[in-house]
Write a structure and sequence with these properties.
The complex is a heterodimer of chains A (354) and B (284). With 354 residues, chain A is of the alpha+beta class. Chain A has 8 helices and 21 strands. Chain A has 2 domains: 4-223, P-loop containing nucleotide triphosphate hydrolases (Rossmann fold), CATH 3.40.50.300; 237-346, Nucleic acid-binding proteins (OB fold (Dihydrolipoamide Acetyltransferase, E2P)), CATH 2.40.50. The longest helix of chain B has 33 residues, at 16-48. Chain B folds into 2 domains: 18-67, no CATH class; 74-282, MetI-like fold, CATH 1.10.3720.10. Chain B is globular and about 70 Å long. Chain B has 13 helices and no strands. In chain B, helix 5 packs across helix 12 (237-245). The chains are: A alpha+beta (354), B mainly alpha (284). The structure holds adenosine-5'-triphosphate (ATP) and magnesium ion.
Amino acid sequence: MADIVIDRVSKHFGDFHALQEVSLNVGDGEFVALLGPSGCGKTTLLRIIAGLETQSSGRIVIGGRDVSALSPRERGLAMVFQNYAVFPHMTVFENVAFGLRMKKVPDAEVKRQVERAAALLHIEPYLDRYPAKLSGGQRQRVAVARALAVQPAVLLMDEPLSNLDALLRLEMRTELKAVLREAGTTTIYVTHDQTEAMGLADRIAVMYGGKIDQIDTPLSVYAAPTTRFVGGFIGNPPMNFIKVKAESGTVRIGPVSFVAPAGGLDLDLGLRGEDAHLSGDGSGLPFDVRVVEPMGSHLLLTGSIEGQAARIVAPPTATVRAGERVGLTVDPSRLTWIDTSTGRALARPQDSTR
Amino acid sequence: MTSVTATPIVKPSGISVPGARRLLLWTGIIAVLAWVLLPIYFVALGAFGGRLGVFRWPKSIWPSDLSAASMLQFLNIEGVFGALMNSFIAAGFTVLFSVLLGAPAGYALARYSFKGQTAFRLLVLLTRAFPLAILALPLTVSFIRLGLYDTAFGVSLIHTVLALPFAVLVTQSLFMGIPREYEEAAWVFGCTRFQAFLRVVMPLALPGLAATAIFAFVISWNEVFAASILTVRERTLTAYLLKVLSESPLHYRFAGGFILIIPSVLFIFAVRRYLFAVWGIASK
Ligand SMILES: Nc1ncnc2c1ncn2[C@@H]1O[C@H](COP(=O)(O)OP(=O)(O)OP(=O)(O)O)[C@@H](O)[C@H]1O
Ligand SMILES: [Mg+2]
């Protein structure tokens, strides 16, 4: 059992609050992705879990053991560093073998494990080389192999595939997922790449400004963001937000009216680009198309609803021209309502058509 | 005229630019080599050229009637061999102490931030501002009292004081140049702090530590003042020669000079492997 409990962890650097009471439970064998913009505290949180940084307050419990005050090596985990930290004075083989050597594993077993990890990351041809003679992506894979070689119960990875080309990244992603699932490794995986997070993770924790805004399955995070930030951060194109006012329980946009959710007057209506459909007869939400971009699998329409910028995804066969006004039909149950003053989502109204 | 400016001017061939740069490079290398090696060569010529060779004029570049005679004679002068040993002892201890004390201090300055860090750094340097001449008398008195007077070990202590500031500052920037992540990775993969230092930091720091050692060695080897006032019979070679050579014939002086140069050169040769370690201190 190696579940991780992060209990109200805060971190200050002088006056700067890098983490504010972050809590997160990761189950045994679960794969959680930490997703967030640059500087939101992902690396800081990972380093605190690893014991490389001391939290200002809060506790870290791994497998039922409070490790808050333990040194990194006593926590029994492996880590892939954001900037690799591959030892320059050791060959790739010795780098990958490092953790096993420290555990005094017999030579034959070391060789077996190193070769297994190297094969997985396609770095067997470089085992005898020094890291200085490797490309950035190759070095990064050495760092991942070094962490996998020790077969850790808990694995922390800080953007481990950021430096690979798209094709290799996709391949490594699937292999990593398979291997970690098979080994039952509890994994926290930092990334800013949302497709990576969506594809790999059992759950995604979206971080913003030193806080976790939402932690949920990839589908829920996508379909039902709990804050305006999450909606705007996840999805390509990001969720559209249209400022509206609720009047006597109703929100009107052009000819269409919706049941307003309880709790707020100034609202942001969150609408996913692919949740809106061209109505064909011009009825529904009025959308003024400004730019049409054919993307192959779909058309990306950029324009405005009631003067507010929005991006809509249309089928590739649709005939829409720039400058046109089209009508959009939307399923009210797929809308997200955000209270403008708090930036947090409000519960969807039960009976949503009127 | 406009048509002339419009026609593309034929550029000098692409090879000549690197060619010129290479010429410049080699000229520079040769100049530096000559600057260092020529004096050593002439000292060697004087040392091995025999009594008459020293006075021959014009000097020939090529050695004539080489003989180790004056060299051997010189080594047989009473006390020279003992002084040589003393020099090695003093320099050896200076290297040992400077590295053993300087490197941890440099490491602490590089890795931890503590109150008074800047002041500490300044104080380390200020020790060099203190004139040794003023210290001479009290130092002699206390050395006599401690039983350190007239020993090579006692001299090495003073030389350590002289070499230590550089050792601290050089190793500090050395350790700053080694990314902290390497150590952190070692900790995560099962090292204690000390193990991480031995397995990761030390190997990366070796070139710099070798340079620090060379520096300490050369400082001790060449230092005259402290060595002269703190010893009577157990002189280091430099201090001994200073006394003896002023009253010796010229070819002996060359022999002495040559012997003074050689150990430093040999020592630098011995540690040169660590100066240019294969992997370099490349980060990432
Ligand atoms: N040692 C430190 N001292 C002061 N501030 C720090 C320190 N380490 C991190 N910070 C600050 O804490 C914040 C979070 O940093 P962190 O490295 O965790 O970001 P991140 O989410 O990993 O970003 P990225 O995706 O760019 O790697 C940043 O604003 C950073 O400036
Ligand atoms: Mg980071």
